[in-house]
Automatic annotation (TrEMBL):
InterPro entries tied to this protein: AAA+_ATPase, ABC1_TM_dom, ABC1_TM_sf, ABC_transporter-like_ATP-bd, ABC_transporter-like_CS, P-loop_NTPase, Type_1_exporter
Recorded topology in the membrane: Multi-pass membrane protein
UniProt cross-references to SUPFAM superfamilies, sorted A to Z: ABC transporter transmembrane region, P-loop containing nucleoside triphosphate hydrolases
Transmembrane segments: 21-42, 54-72, 132-151, 157-175, 236-256
Alphabetical list of CDD domains matching this protein: ABC_6TM_exporters
Source organism of the structure: Paenibacillus selenitireducens
Residues covered by the ABC transporter domain: 331-564
Keyword Transport assigned: yes
Gene Ontology molecular-function annotations: ABC-type transporter activity; ATP binding; ATP hydrolysis activity; ATPase-coupled lipid transmembrane transporter activity
Name by which UniProt lists this protein: ABC transporter
Cellular localization per UniProt: Cell membrane
GO cellular component terms attached to this protein's record: plasma membrane
Length: 584
């Protein structure tokens, strides 16, 4: 458990040392009144009490309480501030690590599972550092100090008090083992629920449109039921063991009563000492019970640490020891092979995009076009061959330097829940407002932005929900223009747009592509008729290469796709009928 926490926090875990020492000193001071009580009882039984002594004892007791409160306060403040600081660093490291992971990791994991690790699991580990750790330390130190004090007074009664501890400890270890097994299942159930919640919220419009609210809510309800059942199992399995641990601990008090009574009757024990043991023993058992409960909580939350450690263990894309930068920006793929796990996606892909040229990739869905674009940005590492920019393998470039060279506009661009100005400025964080407006004007989105209620200060909404699809695309183009990278990748950026937005978007793309190396993934073939070269991709291979006028005359896949799009472009829906009728 503690090894897991150390592996997550690293050397920064040492920041809790001061808080631990405050807790140790607090527990020592906490045990001090027992020594004062021993003196008071001895004086009372010997009738050696005076007003001066009572005042001295009272003042001493007040000082002890004040010192204990001060140490407790300082320890809590140190634990809270340092624990929060440690976990802030962990969150930053997690974000940085996620940024360096290949995209394949995100395609294998649900968004809800990842967000659960980043949010809930990190919060649980933070709770260990800021609260539970010092609580357990204090709950162990106080009984140890009390036991030393009792052994100093009378070793016989001290053994009677302590004897139940070794008998109870196996139950505590057992509860930790049980919690470790069940907590991982409970964590998985919580992550699954997070995924279903995200799915339900993100697709609520689609669910309503298809009248699937009941069916989808059933999936969510099942995830909730699983989490409920796993949570109940955790409590049902571990709680009786922890309660039994506490009961066996308390048996030591019974042994103390029996032993003390026997020694008193035999004249082998002073009454004041017996009273001291009765009073102090309560301080001995109660912290141990608290320690048992806290340790069980920690073991449960440590499973959250295991999930964080698993995320850190995911292998990031390696960075070069001696990075290189290209002087030119032509793109070259040399006999590239790529697979998702055992599924082969690309096989022997080979082509060039000369600098300041526009090359288009076309083909059916699932042919591997977007994968090729992702490999140029090194979202994944290839299985064979090489991807080069300016003659340099992308694996020999720093990831940040590589991504700085490439502007990507996707079919469904994502806008952050920030102002439109802030979204455009993502392309160049230090851009002035004048530069932002200039990019918006070039992307033909300035006109609709200034008509919005707050203009450039209008919040785009989560994912750009406050804007239409065409408006989101044009803002994405403005963002890419502001970045002004020498390489532009357009991943079906004009797909599924209405004619008016397509005209604006095509003008914006033409400006964006000026004097750039451009790779276009196109669904609408009419948008890439002027491309310098067109590559037809099917089943992970390039099967045709040429210009539009060349490919359209060949009896190949491009020719068939062109004819199909021309045919579909001449169809319309006839009112009340599910069949199309060709226009005259």
């Amino acid at each position: 458990m503690f090894k897991t926490i150390r592996s997550i926090t690293g050397q920064s875990g040492k920041m809790l040392t001061r808080a631990t020492w405050y807790t140790v000193l607090e527990m020592i001071v906490n045990a001090a009144p027992a020594g004062l009580l021993f003196v008071v009882l001895a004086s009372l039984l010997q009738e050696e009490v005076s007003l001066q002594r009572m005042i001295w004892w009272t003042v001493s007791l007040l000082v002890m309480f004040a010192l204990q409160a001060l140490l407790a306060s300082r320890g809590q403040i140190e634990a809270q501030s340092n624990g929060a600081s440690i976990m802030k660093d962990v969150r930053l490291r997690l974000g940085e690590h996620l940024r360096k992971l290949p995209m394949g990791y995100f395609s294998r994991r649900d968004q809800g599972e990842i967000s659960h690790t980043l949010l809930a699991n990190v919060d649980e580990v933070e709770m260990i550092l800021t609260h539970l750790f010092n609580q357990v330390i204090g709950s162990i130190i106080l009984p140890i100090v009390s036991a030393v004090f009792l052994l100093f007074i009378d070793w016989r009664l001290a053994l009677a008090v302590i004897i139940s501890v070794p008998l109870a400890l196996p139950l505590l270890f057992w509860s930790q083992h049980l919690m470790g097994k069940r907590s991982m299942k409970r964590q998985a159930a919580a992550a699954a629920l997070q995924s279903r919640l995200l799915e339900y919220i993100q697709t609520i419009r689609l669910i309503k449109a298809h009248n699937q609210t009941g069916q989808r809510f059933t999936r969510l309800d099942q995830a909730m039921a699983r989490l409920r059942d796993d949570s109940i199992r955790v409590e049902v399995i571990t709680s009786p063991v922890v309660m039994l641990f506490s009961m066996i601990l308390e048996l030591g008090f019974v042994v103390l009563l029996l032993t003390g009574t026997y020694l008193l009757e035999g004249g082998l024990l002073d009454t004041s000492i017996f009273f001291i043991f009765l009073a102090v023993s309560m301080k001995f058992y109660q912290p141990l019970r608290s320690a048992g409960t806290a340790l069980t909580q920690m073991r449960f939350m440590a499973s959250a640490g295991e999930r964080i450690r698993e995320l850190f263990a995911q292998e990031a894309l390696p960075e070069p020891k001696h990075p290189r930068l290209p002087n030119t920006f032509n793109i070259e793929l040399e006999n590239v092979d790529f697979a998702y796990g055992d599924k082969k996606i690309l096989n022997g892909i080979q082509f060039q995009v000369p600098e300041n040229n526009l090359v288009a990739l076309v083909g059916p869905s699932g042919a591997g076009k977007s994968t090729i674009a992702g490999l140029i940005s090194r979202f994944w590492d290839i299985n064979g061959g090489a991807v080069k920019i300016g003659g340099i393998d992308v694996r020999e470039m720093q990831s940040e330097e590589l991504l700085a060279m490439i502007s990507t506009v996707q079919q469904q661009p994502y806008l952050f829940n920030e102002s439109i100005e802030a979204n455009i400025r993502k392309g160049k964080p230090n851009a002035t407002i004048e530069e932002v407006i200039e990019a918006a004007q070039a992307a033909h989105c300035h006109e609709f932005i200034i008509r919005l209620p707050q203009g450039y200060d209008t919040v785009a909404g989560e994912g750009g929900a406050a804007l239409s699809g065409g408006e989101r695309q044009r803002i994405a183009i403005a963002r890419a223009m502001l970045k002004n990278a020498p390489i532009v990748v357009l991943d079906e950026a004009t797909a599924s747009l209405d004619p008016e937005n397509e005209v604006y978007l095509q003008r914006a793309i033409n400006k964006l592509a000026q004097n750039k190396t451009v790779l276009v993934i196109a669904h609408r073939l009419k948008t890439i008729q002027s491309a310098d070269r067109i590559l037809v991709v099917d089943k992970g291979k390039i099967i045709e290469v040429g210009r539009h006028v060349e490919l359209v005359t060949q009896n190949g896949l491009y020719h068939r796709l062109w004819l199909e799009q021309q045919r579909l472009g001449g169809w319309r829906i006839k009112g009340g009928s599910s069949e199309g009728t060709k226009r005259a």
